[in-house]
Request: fold
Amino acid sequence: MSITVNEAPGGYRGVFRVREFRAVFAAHLLSVLGVVVAEIALTVLVFRTTGSPLMSALTFALGFLPYALGGTLLAGIADRHPARRVLVGCDLVCAACAAAMVWPGTPVAGLLALRCAMAFVAPLFQGTRNASLADVLGPGDAFVLGRSLMRMVAQSAQLIGFGLGGLLLTVLAPRAAVALTAAGFLCSALLLRFGTRSRPARAAATVRTSPPAGLRAVLGDRRLRVLTLLFWLPPVFVIAPEALLVPYADGIGAGTVALGVMMCALPVGTIAGELWAGSALGPRARSRLVAPLAAAGLLPLLAYAFRPGVPVVLAALLLAGLAHAYTLGLDQWYVDAVPEALRGRAMTLLSTGLMTLQGVGMALAGLAAEFLPVHVVVAGAGVLGTVVVLILLAALRSAGPRGGRPKNETGPAAK
Reply:
């Protein structure tokens, strides 16, 4: 198969040569920063209004809770309607919700409901955008690098956004900061509307399936099911050290500066790993590294068994983040396995499961730490997670290519 003109060889720089991708990338950056700023501002606003730590925490949690419901119920829309229309519509919904939050008369219950609405459409937006990258860049190596850039933006924007949000709140009232979020979503909608091409829907608008039937359509193929689980399950375990960093730092006597540095270690390692794999490796090498990096990715957490100090924790988290480079090869396997007519639904469900199961992983880690020492919980997550990954890799090996046909797992760009 030849490389289409949109597949822009040349690593990350080549991906940025595609005009449509530049618009999608800028829109993604604006929307991610907007969400992070909104989360901080709303949490502060609700706390100042109610004086309740519980209501403040609930405001932050509502960014996760509706995710599973929205992703499950709305997944089919991603394929039944043109991608640009879906993306712009989701951005406008979020912009309207953020604008309503700015209104001084909006009660706390209304703020929470509006936050739920934004979280409800988020998985549809993410899944549709991820699926549309294959249309913009082609389903080969450029798609893999485009997905990698989107993940790095999300990781970086969270690190920068929390600091930016805190800085904004020193000079702006919380509602004014939320107004910037509304403006960001509106700019994102304009970029997508006028910076990307209109393409037809992947599936007929008259073809409607129930959410359970949609799940069966995506997960009915054994190989695709195992690949999905390889995306979903490792984060359940790797999130444990992040979820328990505060009590662990307190237990070893680390100060707030050390805590802040440790909180940055895993995302920094993740970004560095993706940059290395995307810049230094070709498609074949990334494909060969999926199994060893996935199998070894959680092993650094075993260092927690010795209740180490800050330097060892930093090294362990950085190494766990670096191993995340395996997702670039996994992305290519996944897009190869998904039928084009189901790509939007599959990507939406993939995003939904990732976000939902990370929340589950945080809750399970916290629950386990109620009964066991934190360092034992994190080390146990490393052991159990490694066993799960090895089982999934064995299942993937026995599943074979989709439909039983021989398939080059590195994609067309590797030929």
Remarks:
- The chain is about 75% helix and 0% strand.
- Confidence is low (pLDDT under 50) at residues 1-8, 403-415.
